[in-house]
Amino acid sequence: MTHATSGTDTDHRLGFQSLTEEVSARPLTVEGTLPDWLSGSLIRVTPAGLEPTGLPVRHWFDGMAMLNAFFFDAGGVTYANRYLDTDARRSAEGTPPRMYGGFATDPCRSIFRRVTTTFSPPPGDNTNVNLVRLGDEYLAMTESQAPVIFDSRTLETRGHGPSAPGQTTTAHPHADFARNLLLNHAAAMGPRSSYRIFSRAPGEQPRILGEIPVKEPGYMHSFALTERYVVLVEFPLLVNPLDLAVRRRSFIESFRWLPERGTRFLVVERESGRLVREASTDAFFAFHHVNAFERDGELVVDLCAYADPTIIDALYLEPLRAGRRVPRSTLCRFRVSLDRDQMSREEVSSEPVELPRIAYGRRNGSPYQFAYGAGFHDSASLWFDQLVKVDTVDGSHHTWHEEGCYPGEPVFGSAPGTDAEDAGVLLSVVLDSRQGASFLLVLDAASMTEVARARAPHVITFGFHGQYFR
Length: 470
Known about the structure:
By secondary structure, the protein is mainly β. It has five helices and 36 strands. It is globular, with a radius of gyration of 21 Å.
């Protein structure tokens, strides 16, 4: 059973409804032919519970986490979905229901009572942002300390993983394939706040590699990694940790936009943990890095830039369900000199791109050519309604678009037996508003042409990120 936002919604707003139906191992009809090599699974995490206490959550980022999985085997696709069994969901679904801490949800502002709380990780364990594999563990993540462990076949929740060394972290860790590690950063907030670069190996606790003191930490959703460096981009969306301690507002509403501070690029050496370069530029905001690499004495950092953080306000449920237009980001390239006080910014493509992906295992931290993402078909588009492939070398682009369809993040699945950068498929969950259901779209990553699709049994709530696990 699903709950639509309105009985008359027949557009992208269908994707901002709660999904209550859970399906176990349902075979899907495949239109087209899947590549023989495509096996394993695409698993995504979505904020599918948008009315956990009977009332809508305030922000899209605060919906209860659900796993949606497409399993590939012998040319067929099987689908399953299941809510994560988290403390946050049990609290929200309990009797009586209790408000949970979230991105834009203040647990002190309960409809039942208001209490004073000490500082604690605001987002709780509602790990609805991203997924990662570390050794034999599959982890669901958000910006709180502890990831949630799940079974990649049954989607059953298995408990919590080790906590990050700070109150908040990112849901976008980077993989060090050579050492079988995950690298990430956390913000330790208190009287003496700092950014902490840390690593984690399978079965071990996180290990701090380096630490940068900071008076007012910035909100950073992701970061960049090159062969030798970790790159933190600190936008001037900053918080006084005391404001979080007294909890006058929700987590993200405690941050202030201070454009006069500019944006800082902090370059940390991976081996020593030393801050080796700091560069500043005009204020801007971004959620997502695309890639970064070293070339000719400089760092090249590509990300999806906004002029300011109004994109955060645009993603509250009220404007989303009202069908208001969301801001566009620009795929920008920053060049930071490693030995001179010099940096520059340029536009890679005029085509708006968000939820960016690359051929990660082949090119992350190295020079690359192709970026993929969700975009907008024209200026009248209110929500993501096309997929985009950008050539970062010449700025050209190719797209996939179908009327009435709203695709999510395109996850890259690499074809075996070749190192060609765009040899593989793109896997995207698409809302078909004409049919009132979602489908899995499989595109050839080189040509951006459709290979196959498999229709899901319901509308899958719009989500953020997922991974292809072979």
